[in-house]
Description:
Layout: E1 12-17, E2 30-35, E3 44-52, E4 59-67, E5 74-81, E6 88-90, E7 94-103, E8 108-115, E9 120-123, E10 130-136, E11 146-155, E12 164-170, E13 177-185, E14 189-196
Amino acid sequence: MLLYQNPNSRDWTFDVKEPSNPTASTRDSNIKWTMKDATCADAAMYECKVDYNGDAPLQTLFGHQNVSARAAVKNLFVTVFPRKANYRYSENYNVIMTCSVEGPPGLKIVWRSGYPNSGFFQDYSVATDIVEEEFSLVTSDTCPALQYRSTLSIMLRNEDNGLMYVCAARYDNDPELVDNITLSISAADLDLASRPS
């Protein structure tokens, strides 16, 4: 007999599949446990215990699974400094784009640039234009998290017309979180329009 419950009103669900032929000599039972409100505090070693007797004295089987957790990658946004009316700047003006994001230790931030219609973006290659910082965060659970900030400083050129700058944050092999700005420039001035993804 399988016993299960929802402790402390947590948003957990249990899906139980009993054997289709309960009289067969070999029977498969399955219980699927879903944590819809998992937090970092839920990282632990979990144990499945099965008691059975069959044709023999009562026996107990155990299964174990170690579950880890990490802070989420979130709150990514790009800002531009200095911020002038309508984001209009003269050509050859120095602009600083800042990408801020929260995430676990080891988070990687990459700047890319390209033309939206081309669908091709390449990593920004001038490393000296980029400054990266990390700050500790106070979190409500047990996952360590940091506030990351990456700044990209460029001098605006006519060649930047229609160019999109993308800030991408990724942890390990997870999907990237991105934000971007697109530059629109004339010979006299430049507009920056923020376009969150």
